[in-house]
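PT: before anyone asks, these are the final sequences, not the draft ones from last week. 223 residues across everything. Please model them as a single complex and drop the result in this thread when it's through.
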Amino acid sequence: EPEVTQTPSHQVTQMGQEVILRCVPISNHLYFYWYRQILGQKVEFLVSFYNNEISEKSEIFDDQFSVERPDGSNFTLKIRSTKLEDSAMYFCASSSHGGVEQFFGPGTRLTVL
Amino acid sequence: RKEVEQDPGPFNVPEGATVAFNCTYSNSASQSFFWYRQDCRKEPKLLMSVYSSGNEDGRFTAQLNRASQYISLLIRDSKLSDSATYLCVVRWTGFQKLVFGTGTRLLVSP
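LR: through. Structure below.
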């Protein structure tokens, strides 16, 4: 069964450093998403990406964040200057079309010290 | 503001029991509804979509009441492996993002 994969599974970084989280969506999917979940809180939407551009983003997704699809398979989330409050689990998701079920990767746990 | 509300639980039930969760959502301009399950420190996994006429998948039944703006999930004959957090998820018309509830924790005991 096809699945979304994410690397690394855990990333530890110092405050102010840049991090790049990587995702490989399901191969025939066209829509890609990033969500995050701070420990003990609900899953929150960050951004959606379609046809090589951002189609929707939340208030959380400020200028510190960027997304890219550098090649035909990878989808990345970059945080330019991490803050302590960026510590969370970051989930990548993909869907075949907009508005249908989204399938989530196993997540990257980001710890900012 | 578009919100999804759930009772956080936990719901403690014995194996074999039937348990039901409800979820309310704040805006009637909603489009799609889903139940996901999430195990501790794992990703949300799609359990089932929720259709207007209600739908069933084995031991799981989902229902939607648009007039009252709530969604329910019924689990029959609970198994130990059903222990997880059940997330009510809504996608509003015109948006791609999924909006998650806080989840309802279910603990099934022997």
